[in-house]
Amino acid sequence: MENSNYLGTEKVGKLLLRFAIPCICSLIISCLYNIVDQIFVGNGVGYLGNAATGVVVIALPMEMYGDSPEAAKKSIARSDAARAAYYKNVSGQEWGNPHGYGLCIDASVGEDVAANLICDYVRRIAGERSGMK
Predict the structure, then answer these.
(1) How many Å apart are CA 5 and CA 19, to the nearest integer?
(2) Interior CA angle at 46 toward 74 and 94, to 5°?
(3) Contact by Cβ (8 Å): 109, 117
(4) What is the pTM of this model?
(5) CA gap 34, 54 in Å, rounded
(6) Cα-based distances in Å from 15 to 3, 21, 71
(7) Structure confidence at residue 6 (pLDDT)
(8) 42, 50 in Cβ contact below 8 A?
(9) CA–centroid distance for 30 within its chain
């Protein structure tokens, strides 16, 4: 029968190997998933889709590492500057220009209001397209 208190009795080196290897494997799989996902989004939707999916990725490290609001703002500004340069290079347009997007929503309105705005927009667009047929 295996010792159920191995975290308190086992050597640190053995514990590190026991827990680090599965963790490293899962991180590699997660990174590969994100890379492949971006390839599919980039090929299917285009560079605008890649730019949109990058926004979600920023929030996760901030929460995981407990960055201060000032450090988070600096990191976001740095990421935005890199995105703006990439977007301008690829599209020839300015990052943040609302005329380059089909729908812009101020996130400060809240999740429910934003979701309702998106649903209303999709219904309106679908109604316009079905009326054209």
Answers:
(1) 15
(2) 50
(3) yes
(4) 0.34
(5) 10
(6) 13, 10, 33
(7) 77
(8) yes
(9) 13
